[in-house]
Write a structure and sequence with these properties.
alpha+beta
Length: about 90
């Protein structure tokens, strides 16, 4: 896709990004989570545009707790970026 730096499967990668940023883990691999972390850390201002549609596939109670609501995971990422890495973030839900 023209103009897109990274495409992943979604909430699983975002959850890993949140965990690693909160723990202060240094990106050491070329997996999608570390690639996204590198993109975020290379930026001073990060704007998140987050869809709010519910993914019915993630509503199964037998799935891992890691499949948090996307809004919560993005808030965790933004919080870690601001608190630990002194980044300016904005979140817009659509």
């Amino acid at each position: 896709m023209p103009g897109v730096d990274l495409v992943t499967e979604g909430i699983l990668t975002l959850t890993q990004v949140a965990r690693r940023l909160e723990n202060g883990d240094t990106p050491a691999t070329d997996d999608p989570a570390d690639r996204l972390i590198n993109l975020l850390l290379d930026s001073d201002v990060i704007s998140f545009l987050v869809g709010t549609r519910i993914n019915e596939a993630h509503q199964d109670p037998s799935l891992p707790e890691d499949l948090e609501i996307r809004r919560n995971v993005v808030k965790r990422i933004a919080g870690a970026l601001e608190d630990r890495y002194l980044k300016k973030t904005a979140i817009r839900f659509i």
